[in-house]
Backbone:
């Protein structure tokens, strides 16, 4: 298997992770998001098969996104002179494993590759956290991969904001 960055030339064949929005994003939207500099997608390929994909975009964790107690914990991780109203993050905009490959640790392996890749890439810019609007059905998957709830506040019917602290890799 190999991880490739989506380009305008990437041939996109069918992908089915069991979720229509995630399936159609890859085939219909990912190139447009790249073209307009909204998000960059990465595809895990196994020969001609798309095993999984994710996309990334810039984000921040702001005071207003978070409960008071969670914000205290986040701010407490910084010395006083570095306590700001928001901290830089990278958002996992989409993350999906093909139904054919689910349950074989591929999601976890891919998450570790993603973290390693972002942790080691040349520091043209800095960020502290990964964020994700986790589907309710995927919350346990993210928990098992070191993500925590950013806010217990209900955002909407089907997602919760979660985060991972990149300092945990050090
Ligand atoms: C969620 C998803 C990415 C997980 O990928 P995967 O390759 O099946 O996950 P893994 O095999 O690495 O699972 C790792 C652990 O998370 C658990 N897990 C995986 N998917 C889960 C889910 N949907 N709900 C609860 N737990 C889940 C597994 O049981 C496993 O636990 P274990 O280590 O105790 O056995 C995949 O199921 C998927 O693409 N789902 C549809 C799309 C989706 O929900 N994407 C997330 C959008 S926010």
Residues:
């Amino acid at each position: 298997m190999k991880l490739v960055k989506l380009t305008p030339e990437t041939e996109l064949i069918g992908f089915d992770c069991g979720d229509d929005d995630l399936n159609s994003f890859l085939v219909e939207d990912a190139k447009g998001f790249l073209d307009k500099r909204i998000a960059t997608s990465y595809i895990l390929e196994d020969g001609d098969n798309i095993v999984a994909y994710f996309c990334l975009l810039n984000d921040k964790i702001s005071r207003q996104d978070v409960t008071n107690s969670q914000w205290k914990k986040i701010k407490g991780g910084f010395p006083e002179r570095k306590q700001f109203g928001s901290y830089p993050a990278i958002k996992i905009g989409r993350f999906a494993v093909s139904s054919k490959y689910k349950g074989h640790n591929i999601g976890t392996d891919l998450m570790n590759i993603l973290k390693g890749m972002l942790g080691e890439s040349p520091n043209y810019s800095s960020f502290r956290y990964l964020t994700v609007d986790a589907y309710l059905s995927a919350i346990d998957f993210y928990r098992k991969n070191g993500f925590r709830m950013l806010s217990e506040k209900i955002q909407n019917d089907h997602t919760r904001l979660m985060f991972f602290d990149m300092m945990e890799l050090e």
Remarks:
- The CA atoms of residues 52 and 96 lie 6 Å apart.
- The mean pLDDT is 93.
- The first strand starts at residue 2 and ends at 5.
